[in-house]
Design brief:
Blueprint (H helix, E strand, L loop, with lengths): L6 E3 L13 E3 L26 E6 L8 H12 L2 E4 L10 E2 L4 E3 H12 L7 E6 L3 E6 L1 H7 L3 E6 L1 E3 L5 E5 L10 H19 L22 H6 L6 H11 L11 H6 L8 H19 L2
Parallel strand pairs: 3-4, 3-7, 6-8, 7-11
Antiparallel strand pairs: 1-2, 5-6, 8-9, 10-11
Helix pairs in contact: 1-4
């Protein structure tokens, strides 16, 4: 593809992998491109809370995952997160042969019908239904020409856009507890939002401190990630949005899952407790 052709990355999170996405020319869908006019003018180093991310429940969804998902996005990015009224999945996105929903059509629906009046920097569709994309089977292509397969995914986003969609369907397999599913969903959302901010997949070895890894074969890579963004990803997003993001070395997953912060003792409190304990010990020894 020529350098002058702008691209949109279809960021795939497959049934057993988060795989490298396919590119499509922006001319086919100009509304998906990064449009400087759509980004509200902000002063340098603005508060990330000025950015609003909207969660859009679609079709069947686990309502108990929405609050942890919102807290997770805020924990990592510092954005304000709001949840919109639920919508039905559009009939035109249904893929009858595999009984699931085409994620790219869901993105088109969000871009056309939700984003314009939402006031959101990005809209993330959330569903527990299975979602997929059409993918070229290169091995079969050599045999019989163009051959597409329907590929189940965790999530999808257009590069440098305002739309992403994520599904908990494949994140819940193996009887994973809701807390684990919530962590996985947050990590997938953080990853897909990275694509909407113009970040492509990372090259080379997986870096657990980063979010834009290409998992390359297993959900274990997602589980191994810390759920954070690394320095170069943070720098890109800060330049893209004109904000200063929080530096998070490890999300408070207790807060993400429950809404309650882990109890922490200050050094002063610990010192006071130690002093009292020592004094009590001395008193106990007195005749």
């Amino acid at each position: 593809m020529r350098a002058s052709t702008r691209r949109l990355r279809v960021a795939l999170a497959a049934a057993t992998a988060i795989s490298i996405g396919a590119a499509a020319p922006v001319a086919a869908h100009p509304e998906r491109a990064g449009d400087p006019d759509r980004i509200v003018a902000r002063t340098a180093a603005a508060d990330p809370a000025t950015i609003t991310i909207c969660l859009q429940p679609l079709g069947k969804h686990d309502r108990k995952l929405l609050a942890p998902l919102a807290r997770g996005i805020t924990e990592v990015y510092g954005f304000t997160v709001t949840t919109l009224a639920a919508r039905e999945l559009p009939a035109e996105a249904w893929y009858e042969p595999r009984k699931r929903w085409r994620a790219d059509k869901l993105l088109d629906e969000l871009a056309a019908d939700v984003v314009p009046d939402s006031g959101c920097q990005a809209v993330v569709g959330v569903t527990s239904d299975d979602i997929s994309v059409a993918k070229i089977d290169h091995a079969r292509r050599q045999q019989d020409g163009t051959h597409e397969i329907d590929w189940g995914i965790f999530g999808l986003a257009y590069l440098d856009s305002q739309v992403a969609v994520i599904s908990s369907h494949r994140l819940s397999r193996g009887k994973a507890r809701r807390g684990k599913v919530a962590r996985r969903l947050v990590k997938v959302a953080i990853h897909e939002l990275g694509h909407t901010f113009g970040l492509d997949h990372r090259e080379g070895e997986v870096n657990a401190t980063c979010t834009m890894n290409d998992a390359g074969g297993t959900i274990r890579t997602v589980d191994a990630e810390l759920g954070t963004i690394c320095a170069d990803e943070r720098d890109h997003i800060e330049r893209h949005l004109g904000v200063t993001l929080p530096v998070v070395t490890a999300p408070d997953w207790t807060f993400v899952e429950t809404g309650k912060r882990k109890a922490t003792k200050t050094k002063a409190a610990k010192a006071t407790k130690a002093t009292k304990a020592a004094a009590g010990g001395e008193e106990a020894k007195a005749p």
